[in-house]
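QA checklist item 7 of 12: single-chain prediction sanity check.
[x] sequence parsed
[x] length recorded as 158
[x] structure emitted
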Amino acid sequence: MNLLLAVSILGIGALVSCRTSKEVPTGNHLVDFTPIMNATLYGDGQEGFSQGGIVIRNENELENFRTKANSVNETIEGIAADFSKETLLIYVDQVRGNAGHSLEIKTISETERAITVEVQHRSEVPASEVISQPFIMVSILKSEKDIQFSFREENGNL
């Protein structure tokens, strides 16, 4: 009886511990990431970024991003990465007509061949009538896999 009770408790514990609030497609697994920066560009789009994802795998690519981001206003300071151990992922939003916007990484998942980053736009009550362009930067373990970005507006539209 005690053995049956112990097996039942272990089975229930295993089921509960396998649940996750973030679902990924079958065959994928979640990738751990470290938030680096969630910021906003205020250059009215003059920095020259289009909406989309940027993968940074070396110091030269990071310096190019930093130079472009800082071309109108000093936005990025003091970012260092060990590119022998990590890859930086950046998603730049579209230029927005007011402040009060931000981005969130919902999940990063991986298959044998690719990594998918799911980014969601968040909107709060507009803080001001300043033109803004949010971006987010995270770090993952070094990877040479193809990296794709999936973007969702807060209302769920892709």
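[x] summary fact logged: Strands lie at 29-30, 34-41, 52-56, 86-92, 101-110, 114-123, 133-141, 146-152.
[ ] second reviewer sign-off
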